[in-house]
Amino acid sequence: MSYIETPPNHRFPWYVRLFLANQRRRYGRELEPARLWARSPIVFAALSLLYGALDRKSSPIEPALRTLVTVRVSQINWCAFCVDINSATALKRGLTEVHLESLHCFEESPLFDDRVKAALAYAGAVTYSDRQVDAALMARLKSHFDDEAVIELTALIAFQNLSSKFNSALDVSAQGFCKLPPRFDAW
User: How far is CA 147 from CA 36, 138, 154, 156, in A?
Assistant: First the structure.
């Protein structure tokens, strides 16, 4: 149960109702973050468009890596909902439970190649407030990604920080999409 609840009879604009109906078809229920964001319909619409742009098929960042990045950012930000739904997405995108369980020690894990490790290190540097992206990390990243991919990766990380910090601040719970227990890392 989150700190702010949307009353079941809350009247959303028509375009939000369409979006929520699609969630009911896709997930079997409405997602609590969507109901919260939808309380500000214009912001909700903008966020929905941004997410769609970042998760499109033609993105220069492949789906599995996008998902690893979103799970890692969600872990750092202590967002139970985000870890839950993004972990379920990861499993659908061909990643394994072992991949997800190894995210906290990705630098040492043989499961991840240098490209994935660079992206995850970058996600951490952008997400942790006591870290910065330095020239060495950017060089490491650019050895695997062109400028357009770095921009998209940065946008994805920023979006996931927005989403996971919103959900974490409002104490949005996991909705049971993934059977893995959420792992949070405070280091």
Answer: 34, 11, 10, 14
Q: How many residues does the chain have?
A: 187
If one counts every other C-beta atom within 10 angstroms of the C-beta of residue 168, the result is 17
Count Cβ neighbours within 10 Å for each residue of 95-125 and write b for 16 or more, e otherwise: beeebbeebbebeebebbeeebbbbbbbbbb
Question: Does the pLDDT value for residue 116 go beyond 80?
Answer: yes
- CA 111 vs CA 1, 9, 181: distances in Å: 35, 47, 20
pLDDT digits (tens, 9 = 90+) for 16-28: 999 999 999 999 9
Helix or strand or coil: residue 76? Answer: helix
Q: Are residues 93 and 120 in the same domain?
A: yes
Instruction: Give the pair of three-digit tokens for residue 59.
Output: 């993105």
- Per-residue model confidence (pLDDT) at position 108: 97
- Do both 72 and 160 map to the same domain? yes
User: Rounded to two decimals, what is the model's pTM?
Assistant: 0.92
